[in-house]
Amino acid sequence: MSDVYVMGVDMIKFGRFPDRTVPQIGAEAALLALDDAGLTIHDMQAFYCGNLGQANAMVGQRILQEIGQTGIAVVNCANACATGATAFREAWMSIKAGVYDCVLAVGVEQMGKGLLGGAGGGAGIPKEGLLGSGTMPSVFAEAGMEHARNHGTTFEQFAKVSVKNHHHSTLNAKAMYQIETPLETVMNAEMISYPNTKLMCSVNVDGSAAAVLVSEKKAKELGMQRAVRVKASVLASDPYTDRDLVMPDVNAVTRIAAQQAYEMAGVAATDIDLVELHDCFATAEILHYENLSLCADGEAGRMIDEGEVALGGRVPVNVSGGLLSKGHPLGATGIANIYEVCTHLRGEAGKRQVEGARLGLTHVIGLGSACGIHILEKVA
Amino acid sequence: MSEQSKQQGPLPVVPYLKGADTNDPYLEGLECGACRAIFLGDRSTCSKCGARDQLSPKRLGNRGKLYSYSIVYRSFPGIDVPYISAIVDLEDGATLKGNLIDIEPDPANLEFDMPVEVVFADALGRKDKDGNQYLSYFFRPLN
Asked: Rounded to the nearest 10 degrees, what angle do helices A250-265 and A282-291 cross at?
């Protein structure tokens, strides 16, 4: 089977674009990625489109109606917050299978403001605030408090994640925000669901990201100078665990995916130079240091305290600013984090460059649950 | 709804709350005869071991321990905050989410594994479009 390479990849600056349509927002990233690859829509043999909000509305085809209707296969994907990673992985798989040599993947989302989630729909009466809470800040607060229960993790340690990621975003012009948020600012911000304050919740933004994936044969034809090798592409669903149906278990699903990804790539967690992981809430990031084996179980609090996950540390995490400050357009996130890692592997990340980066890992969680992990490697 | 069919007692907030219109309401799980996993709500196949048609009703006890929680300060319009959203492990193996009441919502008051009991009460005055009342379950600190 051919190795698969990212030949072009880009994202738009995340923001709020209420006057634009989802296909328009997606088309912009698609064109950027095609330009980055030095290719056009006429070179694409298939198109994998990730979007959640209009999952039944043929967003992929409508993007082609913006940039070129060439008659190629279009697959529209939805997989909660793993949507973008799923579209990218479908594109990867089509090349692995030998069906295509050159395909496009786009993730795009237009978001409203405010709380996502909520407990129990169905018949009868609303359950939110009656049978606990199903809002995303609460669900991930409960997951964080499970870590506090097991390892004594503190509110302050969770808050430090947000300080770090907001700091990183000051170095990323494509992030929604570039604002330093000191620890006291994070901890004193409006409490949404303890222990997550407002500044510990990801930002709802509009955005898009896109990638052109090619086979080894095509990559050699085009030139390998800026190509990035996809060393592993894994998607997992939540296995049965005791509380998963009541309290979504984002740990077990990540551990399954991580183990498979390291095995597929033939690398160890200690070989990874940078990580973009799913910090939908500050509490979530802490869990994933351990789930991705960046440290031993129970060490995550120490990692954030000692700066090991900050730019310049042992394994920088979310140098893009993460979902907490770069923003989280649900369907775009899984390709935006691939853009970030590729940018470092190409040595093009400017002030936030992770020096000497050769191997990077991206991780997303779609609650309900899906986990997508990609391991990417510098070629030239 | 006609006068004749109007409810006598409250309706259950979830299908696994049984006996809502009696003086002995309780929670009912489905236990897998093959692997003993316990589920809430109707199903025919066990998602732990995959066994089919081996799930049987099991009356759940009212005692458990606080496994995890969040204190909710921002919710949707019309919902009283703050409140404690609690994950509770019941003694017989089931896990439930619900409001933990009769305790100040402050992390200083909440200890992991603190004993709680399941209590049944009106669903905070919430009614459906037909005006029906509902019985809900809540958690309360034991002692």
From this structure: 50
Please list, residue by residue across A344-360, b when 16 or more beta carbons sit within 10 angstroms of its beta carbon and e when fewer do: bbbeebeebbbeebebb
pLDDT in tens, A214-267: 999 999 999 999 999 999 999 999 999 999 999 999 999 999 999 999 999 999
Instruction: Say which residues have a Cβ less than 8 Å from residue A223's Cβ, sequence separation at least 6.
Output: none
Cα separation, A374 vs B67, in Å, equals 33
| Domain A4-113+203-375 belongs in CATH node 3.40.350.10 | no
Cα dist. A291→A64, A148, A269, A288 in Å? 38, 15, 11, 4
Interface check for B68 against chain A (CB to CB < 8 A): the answer is: yes
Residue B79 at interface with chain A, using a CB cutoff of 8 Å: yes
Alpha-carbon distance of B68 to B70, in angstroms, equals: 7
In tens, the pLDDT along A109-150 reads 999 777 887 766 667 899 999 999 999 999 999 999 999 999
Using N-to-C axis directions, what is the helix angle for A136-151 and A282-291, rounded to 10°?
50
**Whole-number Å distance between alpha carbons of A365 and A235:** 10
B141 with B103: CB under 8 angstroms?
Answer: yes
Nearest CA among A234, A231, A226, A211 for reference residue A272: A231
Whose tokens are 């700066």? That residue is: A307
Give the residue among A335, A255, A271, A283 at the shortest CA–CA distance from A81: A335
ipTM of the complex: 0.95
For A195, name the nearest residue in chain B, comparing CA atoms only: B70
- Collapse the DSSP code of A162 into the 3-class scheme (helix H, G, I; strand E, B; otherwise coil) and give the result: helix
Domain locations in chain A as residue ranges: 4-113+203-375
Give helix A83-96 / helix A330-345 axis angle, nearest 10°: 60
Shortest alpha-carbon distance between residue A194 and chain B (Å): 5
Q: Is B1 on the interface with A (CB under 8 A)?
A: no
